[in-house]
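Hey, resending since the last one bounced:
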Amino acid sequence: MELIDGKALAKSIRENLKEEVDKLKKNGINPRLAVIMVGDDKASKVYVKNKSKACEEIGVDYKEYLLEEDITMDELLNLIHILNVDKNVHGILLQSPLPKQLDINEAFKEIATEKDVDGFNPINVGKLSLNQDCFVSCTPYGIIKMLESYNIPLEGAHAVIVGRSNIVGKPLLQCLLNKNATVTICHSKTKDLASTTKNADIVIAALGKPNFIKADMVREGAVVIDVGINRNEEGKIVGDVDFEDVSKKASYITPVPGGVGPMTIAMLMVNVVKAAKARMK
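The structure tokens again:
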């Protein structure tokens, strides 16, 4: 079994990006990420802090917009429109979850396609499904980068994704199809889940249930990617995969923490730099 070290891979990506940012600055482009956060969600605060640290490390300007929990949709859209036309802003990120009165899909739709570094605007989602150049949602992008970095063959491989969210499952399906993998998506209504995951060359767990994927659900030698970040009863951070048992069968596996998480933020930085380069052109 080999551990897929997302932390080390993300570090090397950030080091390369730092050089690219320095070049952009010499050409008069100062890459800037604007992050919008509504309300006081604790997990969101942690994610936002990690994003700001990554920006600082590679030299990207970081601007945070903290909005009150009770803002209206019009107020949110007004801020997005201001950032859309601001020539000094290259990437816009709307942190989820949002309070109930706000429609997140409506908000994603309003973020300018060329600044949509999270890859959630319907135009970028559509371009991904057509295998065209676009901003790819950061977690799926990071997973693909990990698999490629460890020379894990995707063409012809059978990948099973457990979870069908718009943030991970659905865009990852498109990413894997674009790499010529055969892809099955499973979810809460899937019958006999274990028989499907057992046939997979690659199992990707993204369902948000601690230690859900057990050793008897994975075949010997499978590659296992764990997207989950959960707290168990002892308050310890664990993934969606029962790491201790599944790692004995897997050929490659990602740890939690230190696997997919750091790669998500690294690919966000890749997207911000890509947006700034596009502006230069």
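The CA atoms of residues 162 and 205 lie 5 Å apart.

Sorry for the duplicate.
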